[in-house]
Amino acid sequence: MSDEERTIGSSEPPRVPASAGALLFDERGRLLVLNPTYKRHWTIPGGQLEANGETPWEACRRETHEECGIALERGRLVCVDFRPPKDRRRAGGLRFVFHCGVVGAEQRERISLQASEISDYRFVDLDEAAELLSAPIRRRVLACARADRCLYLEDGRPVVSVSG
Fold this sequence. Notes:
With 164 residues, the chain is α/β, with parallel strands linked by helices. It has helices at 3-9, 56-68, 105-109, 126-132, 135-144, and strands at 18-25, 31-36, 46-48, 76-83, 93-102, 118-124, 151-154, 157-158. It has a 6-stranded mixed beta sheet with strand order 3-1-5-4-7-8, with helices on both faces. A two-stranded antiparallel sheet has the order 2-6. A hairpin with a 2-residue loop joins strand 7 (151-154) and strand 8 (157-158). Helix 4 (126-132) packs antiparallel against helix 5 (135-144). The longest helix has 13 residues, at 56-68. The chain is globular and about 50 Å long.
């Protein structure tokens, strides 16, 4: 879309879809990934923000609890990723990622999958996660999994002119 098309299009404020995800690890540093029933590649816990004013952190907590039964107590924002629109049907949007720490043995035993959306889960090292995750999620997760600060990404890639 050209700059001219953006300015002529509408006088309404833009509606930007947003989602939030959780990075959760076991004691060995392996990442929790989920196998969704509705798409080909594995993903991290999380999902879309509700239109009722839900915050990214609230969505991260709600979706993680719904998808795998883990109640998040704490998190640290490690990434905001802008996904550009692919076409008129896919709006792109903002992706927030929170590092939510280690899932202890007791919590792992209580993992309960949302059968309508999640068929399986695994704790995997980042190399295996890179093979299981789709390209945009892979770039995002690998960029921020070990970040010590919040990153700004565009389509999962750091922006050279933006420092953190």
